[in-house]
């Protein structure tokens, strides 16, 4: 091997939040990782994501970065509220209360304070989030970061992938040999293009001008209690503003109307002033600006052999409910434990079929939630009455009605328990349906906790004060609610394949009623794989399915049928 050839178990293309989270999780499983990134090390990211979902924070807790993230972002006492106003500095129409990070674990009142989880959501911009993930990832053993490195293509065979990468400053070409490769390289993904996957869906839903500004005087000009996000609704221009540092930096989104098809057809400066509600004398500094198109596009496949797609490389949609980055991280964490199982040797290669089978349908569902909400918001912006800023009782009554409608429409996207805890996997080769019930439906805002296989295992606190998820093992965790059930046969079967199995005896009295079975088997990603009152009759066949080796089960049944023992499947 010459000095331009590198080797790793997994090669990740892209070091954004999705790629970094994937690297962190793989490293926690003893998997060696190389990450290729075109940016310089610690080069600041764009001001994009503003919200880390609860499910993401649960996994960051496991990976040891949740508290670091909690300590960053807005000031500890800065309200995370979402407020609707006529302009940013104008009259308040309604407010969705969201706890500041100081009160995030203790607040119990309000639509965003009841989350059934050890880690509720966290509002933090990507410019603070990504450096924390990067610093943590760079310090992990088994992770090599290749910055200023351009992915140029790959070939694959039955044993692995050979990728070509070019050092952008020196021009040196490297060959990287890996067992698997994952494209986390964004919406214009080179990996997606090379595997021939195509984005399908709605190409244009909303055009947006985004401007990142520094305006130290703005906070004192905003009446009343501060807010993390402010929606401006007036007949001149509707837009959204996010507080970035809580002092002087702000991100302003100008939502273009349908009759404004070109970004340069709208005066950015005037639109920004109309959203803020300020005059020509208001001074601000543009830190950066970006024009972007909200879409609903999903790749027609997430995989080609040993090469996978995750995050924006696999799906793009309007970022309502803050579920762009978070959906990508969910991809990464779904894929990571499957790749880890194969690299560690206990997972069959067919186990990887679960990734696309599970994540692609959920991506379609979530993207449609986001698109539907985007279309409702577009209609609401078009319907802002001309007299919304009129003084007096009539104006007050009109603003109250508009505020009430805005609250009802948007509380579900900012307090989106359904998107966090309601989605479930069906049709997966490694989830064993029991035929008792189907998984309950969910919406953007609401869900019904369930232990139906495929659902997220409902959270509860253990008798020793730990979160249920804190006690999960790296592979499968069997929750045993009755010690009289002998699970040793399953432990022996798992051990014979070196499949990690943690048996957790539940002794707390405060168990959610949905845990009605004596045994519930959970996966590393917190989804239920199986449940029952007794172990399956053949624990070796059972373990084979959990490992993705359903072929073993089919072959065994055919052999038994040949001997006249059982009917052929």
Layout of secondary structure:
Elements: E1 5-13, H1 17-28, E2 33-37, E3 51-52, H2 54-63, H3 66-70, E4 82-85, E5 92-96, E6 122-123, H4 126-138, E7 143-147, E8 149-156, E9 161-167, E10 173-183, H5 190-195, E11 199-214, H6 218-221, E12 229-232, E13 239-243, E14 249-255, H7 268-276, E15 285-299, E16 303-304, E17 307-309, E18 315-317, H8 325-344, H9 353-382, H10 392-414, H11 417-421, E19 476-480, H12 488-496, E20 501-505, E21 519-522, E22 528-532, H13 539-546, H14 550-562
Parallel strand pairs: 1-2, 1-10, 2-7, 4-12, 10-17, 19-20
Antiparallel strand pairs: 3-6, 4-5, 8-9, 9-10, 11-14, 11-15, 12-13, 13-14, 15-18, 16-17, 19-21, 21-22
Helix pairs in contact: 1-4, 1-8, 8-9, 13-14
How would you explain this protein's 3D organization?
Strand 8 (149-156) and strand 9 form a beta hairpin. With 569 residues, the chain is of the alpha/beta class. It is built from 14 helices and 22 strands. It is globular, with a radius of gyration of 25 Å. The strands form four sheets. Strands 1, 2, 7, 8, 9, 10, 16 and 17 form an eight-stranded mixed beta sheet that branches. Helix 8 (325-344) packs antiparallel against helix 9 and helix 13 (539-546) runs antiparallel to helix 14.
